[in-house]
Amino acid sequence: MDSAAILLEQRRSGRIEFTREQFEALLAPETPDAVVASMLTTLAMSSHSDAEASELTQAYVASGQQVVWDDASDVVDKHSTGCVGDDVSIVLAPLLAATGIRVAKISGSALRHCGGTLDKLRCIPGLCLDLTVREFVGCVEKVGFCIAGQSPELVPADGRTYALRKRTGTVDVLTLIAASVMSKKLATGAATIALEVKYGSGAVLATEAEALELAQLMRGIGERAGRRMLMSICDASQPLAPAAGPLLELREAVAVLRGGGSPVLREHVCALAEQIVRAVPTPDSGMPSHHRIDVVLRSGRAYEVFEEYVEQLRGDVNWLNNNLDTTTAPAIVTFHARRAAMYTGIDARPVGEAAQRLAAIDPSCGVRILAEPGRSLAAAEPVFEIHAPDPVAGYAYLEALGGHCHFQD
Ligand code: URA
Questions:
Q1: Using an 8 Å Cβ cutoff, are 150 and 108 in contact?
Q2: Is 70 within a domain?
Q3: Which residue's C-alpha comes closest to atom 5 of ligand 1?
Q4: pTM strictly above 0.85
């Protein structure tokens, strides 16, 4: 038996837990995929200590470069496990930057029925999100924040194991999710990491218990690495912003940055920003945190910082200012209340699934929700719109989603 096979056998029989060095050897580029796959299934099928989850995370981090800041004390990273209408990062990062807190964030594309921040930002013509580590750091230094895609220089072992997790049915293993997420957070070097773990119909995680378990795992990994961890657990049974689909969600995020937009999204972002502003020391720390956040949103400073980011990454600021609100899908069809009743909400998951399928054809397509849950509607009042590539597809989705709206007499 070779040394990897002996290690795997010892781990399966419960005689050892893997150390960081052993994980590094198992994750080395020359280790055959079959051995890495066997390591993943071994971890998926056995219990593990929190310390072992940290060792795996550190081995992922060691597989690539790490960002080193001169002073990381005011650098924050933020991650959400995702939900339908989760436009938080696009609002939060420039908002924090405008208050003097730097944000360095690696984002991802859509995961299942949850839209991805990168897909939304990619709607801005020209915006380049594939950055080297140097460009990423340069953007944070100049603008105050950067959101970019994962550089191949950072945590390459995560990219490889994620592909193998898909092939071995281990994508949903909480330890592997925690190590994958936290390795990217540790590699970007922020002193503070804010994590939103979401659960419910619109989220990747179905139950609050799963969300709590994942949150605890990630908190432990972060704290053992010496980072300040700010945690929130959120119910995501309704879409967070009233839209799903890349372009529609970008528009929702920008509307909040411009001082308007969805009150639910704005309040959610402001509450998270307040938690972060209170925790991270900056020269302005004497001013009440809610006041600082209010000022940068109302004054337009948060939106200006977002414009600076778009410009820095060669995106079309003119399009952002003049075309974002007028660019629409080829067909828009509206679902109306069939009778007078109180609208109590819509199941978030089918909204997200419909938006993913529509956006795969055209990123301007998706679902826009017009009615607020808890409001009484008259007969024929609009409830939601389908933005579709053509009217036939639009009416098909309208019919299907109509069955997921809930009303009370
Ligand atoms: N996001 C990640 O980066 N990794 C996972 O495994 C799941 C979500």
A1: yes
A2: no
A3: 177
A4: yes
Residue nearest to atom 1 of ligand 1 (CA): 181
Q: Hey, what amino acid is at 367?
A: V
Residue 215 Cα, ligand 1 centroid: separation in angstroms? 13
Residue range 43-70, pLDDT digits in tens: 999 888 999 999 999 999 999 999 999 9
Ligand 1 centroid–CA 402 distance in Å is 32
Final residue of a domain: which of 295, 322, 349?
A: 322
Determine the Cα–Cα distance for residues 344 and 131; give it in Å rounded to an integer: 43
Check whether residue 157 and residue 245 sit in a common domain. yes
Beta carbons of 382 and 402 less than 8 angstroms apart: no
CATH number of the CATH domain containing 46: 1.20.970
Q: What distance in angstroms lies between residue 177's CA and the mean position of ligand 1's atoms?
A: 5
313 lines ligand 1 (CB under 6 A): no
Same domain, 163 and 206: yes
Position in ligand 1 atom list of the atom nearest CA 181:
3
With beta carbons less than 8 A apart as the criterion, state whether 98 and 296 touch: yes
Q: Residue 308's pLDDT is what?
A: 98
Find the CATH number of the domain harbouring 366.
3.90.1170.30
Domain hosting 9: range is 3-62
Contact 283, 100 (CB under 8 A): yes
